[in-house]
Amino acid sequence: MKLSISQNENISLGMREDHIIIASHRRSGTQLTIDLILNNFDIYSNAKPYLSLAGLQKNIHKKEFENQFISNLKDKPRVIKSHAHANHSDYYSNNETILHIANYLFKNCKIIYVYRDGRDVLNSLYYYYNKLYPERNAINFSQFINMKNDLDDDTFSKNLNRVEYWYYHLNGWLQKNNILFLSYEQILKDYYGCFLKIREYLAINPNSKIIDVRISQHSTQSNNKAKHTSILYRKGLIGDYQNIFSREDYNVFEKYTNNLLNKLGYN
After folding, report:
1. How far is CA 235 from CA 44, 72, 113, 115, 133, in A?
2. How much is the pTM?
3. What does DSSP assign to residue 3?
4. Is 180 helix (H, G, I), strand (E, B) or coil?
């Protein structure tokens, strides 16, 4: 059912504009970025937990969930997670209410887009899928990256494989303005520098003491003062793709990504 203009206005009436959206392709450091913000900026940590637009999509048939989500957007500044590609109006077009909420948020709120070396993204995504869907273990990595992308495939018209979709996602966002772009690798290697970029972009005061939420690359232990939202954490290593990529896989990746990694400063 299509909402009337007045119904749409009622949904967004009183909705705050000081939320922060963390957007990314899956397995790109989303939770690490969310944890950095929640642990270091009281204005957002006082409104835990973060909100997920994917969660709203899954529960939109539950009126109570929808009402609570909208109420949360009017209550306090929130961190909002999204895996939408850059054409977010298409991404959320299946439901009029979600589309209106998303359009309001992406128009009025600040956005941090976090990206990661696409080879590590695909490596992580492969093992993530194998854990969630054990029946797929018969598919090897080469088959996995060449198969038709099934992430959000009803939100765009192109027939893309998994490598192409990673490129489509990141390259689309890179065309947008007034967004803070951070890489997963930057956060791990220069945590304080990324913290300063976030502070400057948000233009708000952080907590008096910086909490480092990074998880060691050699251990699953982390700063015991940090609170983590990470789900299904695996390794998080930089360059772990080298343990699974074949020469043919490298060729496939290079074929579909238009030298994007080099443009972003990756080797």
Report:
1. 27, 33, 21, 17, 19
2. 0.91
3. P
4. strand
Q: What angle do CA 106, 263, 247 make, to 5 degrees?
A: 115
Edge-to-edge strands, sheet with 51-52: 51-52, 79-82, 20-23, 110-115, 180-183
Domain with residue 101: its CATH number is: 3.40.50.300
Tell me which residue range forms the domain holding 175.
Answer: 5-263
Q: Is 92 helix (H, G, I), strand (E, B) or coil?
A: coil
* The one-letter amino acid at 60: I
Which residue bears the tokens 């939109």? Answer: 60
pLDDT tens sequence across 17-43: 999 999 999 999 999 999 999 999 999
- How many domains does the chain divide into? 1
DSSP 51-88: EEHHHHHHTTT-HHHHHHHHHHHHHS--EEEE---S-H
Q: Coil, strand or helix: which one is 233?
A: coil
